From TrEMBL:
Organism field: Pelomonas margarita
Cited Pfam families: DCC1-like (PF04134)
Name this protein carries in UniProt: Thiol-disulfide oxidoreductase DCC family protein
Amino acid sequence: MTANPPSHTVFYDGDCPLCRSEMGVLMRDNRAGRLRFVDIARPGFEAAALGVTQAALMARLHVLREDGRWLVGVPAVQAAYAATGHTRIAAALAHPVLARLAGPAYDWLADHRYRLPRWLLRLVHLHAGRCAPDGACRTH
């Protein structure tokens, strides 16, 4: 089966353990090739060429759609999960009650992602398939 050309480009912070873990899930499930991933923490990445600042990209997950429209924060998460077949997660984030909670929760996680406790990161890594049930985690 031939992969489709990417419909979205996901710009993520590759220095963030939480971000890397979630991107690992999305990369693993990107079987149709609908997403392209760009690690904005890599040396040589130029945000200015995209018409956005590095600070803005580092603050929240950004997805650039094929039509040139930016999605930021929860809408970016929804688009990425929907593109990889996680339609229930995407739909849940759009549910009116959950949407009211998802925005502030996402903002808090994004703002504190480098200070999250180790137990939470281990839980996320387990979810992403990077840890064995005994808690032994592979590093990147």
